Amino acid sequence: MEHREVEALARQLFSAYETGQRVSHLPSARSGFDLDAAYQVEAELKRLREASGAKAVGRKAGYANKAIWRALKLETLLWAHMYDDTVHYNATALSLPHRRSLKIEPEIMFGLKHAITAEHISATAALESTDWLAIGYELIDCPYPTWKFQPSDFVAALGLHAALVVGERVPVRPDWIPTLLEELRRFKVRISKNGELAEEGSGKNVLGSPASCLAELGTAVLRRFPNEPLSAGEVISSGSLTAGHPTDAGDRWTVEVDGLPLPPLTLRLD
Residue 111 CB: number of other CB atoms within 10 A? Predict the structure, then answer.
């Protein structure tokens, strides 16, 4: 795509994000709109978000399930930026303006203390780059008429990111990493809506482990933007541990973790 087309599409998606309007046509319906073009749009959206006063503070992983890669012709997971006005710490209630059709996903989040500047690092090396981990929620919203889209549409629409709620942050001590590596492969979560179990999930749902997802994300970013690696201080959301569940104002969600020393996290949507 030509740069003027990238800018025009980014402005359209930025307007939809700020107003809660929908985009009537998928970007992927345009000739030549592939993942390369999508990441150009995502970069332009980052520029527009920061020009409006927001600051990029992390990145979210998407499509962190290898079972769907072959069907969608993906070689790795996808990602998008998150911002200081969308990332919330220890929030118990959240109100999101301009929402369209929200879904909520429980995820493991990491805070980085070191940049990830090498490709194909191990899950152990990825954990050695982290300062903390937490359980939390990502709220996603779709600007398209339905929840049907291509991977390139996902990237172009800010990765559908609406908000991230980070629970209690637990420090990752060096002596804990060997045990944590195993715990991240085996732990399970239960997410409940208004006191009723909605779904059970597992760390295996994100590339076998959130630590593996973090390592893969580092490689995916470096391959596409070698001068913009995952950096110290960034917050990383490592992919949904369950399906995304539709949600709206008045819903009360609780996620509980078995197999990791992370306390439950309850969130109410206002």
Answer: 19
Integer angstrom CA distances of residue 244 from 9, 24, 69, 200: 26, 23, 18, 12
**Cα–Cα distance for residue pair 102/48, rounded to 1 Å:** 23
Pick among 3.30.70.330, 3.90.580.10, 3.40.50.10240, 3.90.850.10: CATH of 57-269: 3.90.850.10
Q: Which band of pLDDT confidence, cut at 50, 70 and 90, is reported for residue 88?
A: very high
Tokens of 179: 């045990």
Task: Please write the tens of the pLDDT for every residue from 170-196.
Answer: 999 999 999 999 999 999 999 999 999
Using one digit for the tens of pLDDT, what is the confidence trace for 149-170? 999 999 999 999 999 999 999 9
H or E stretch covering 189: strand 188-193
Residues 32/34/40/46 CA torsion (nearest 10 deg): 130
102 vs 55, 95, 195, 244, 248, CA distance in Å? 23, 12, 19, 9, 7
CA triplet 251, 257, 259: central angle to 5 degrees? 170
